[in-house]
Amino acid sequence: MIARPRLPPAKDNTEELQAQWREMAAKIAKVHPDWSKVEIAKKVQESPLGRKNGTSLTYSVSFIVKSIGPMKSTQEQYEHLLSNALEDVFVIAARRGIDTRQLAAAFDAERGPGLHQEHTLTISVRDTPLVVTAYGIPHTWLSIDTGYIDSRFSQQIAVLLSDLERKAQRDGPLI
Question: Please, how many CA atoms are within 13 Å of residue 68, restricted to the half-sphere of its CB?
Answer without folding.
Answer: 31
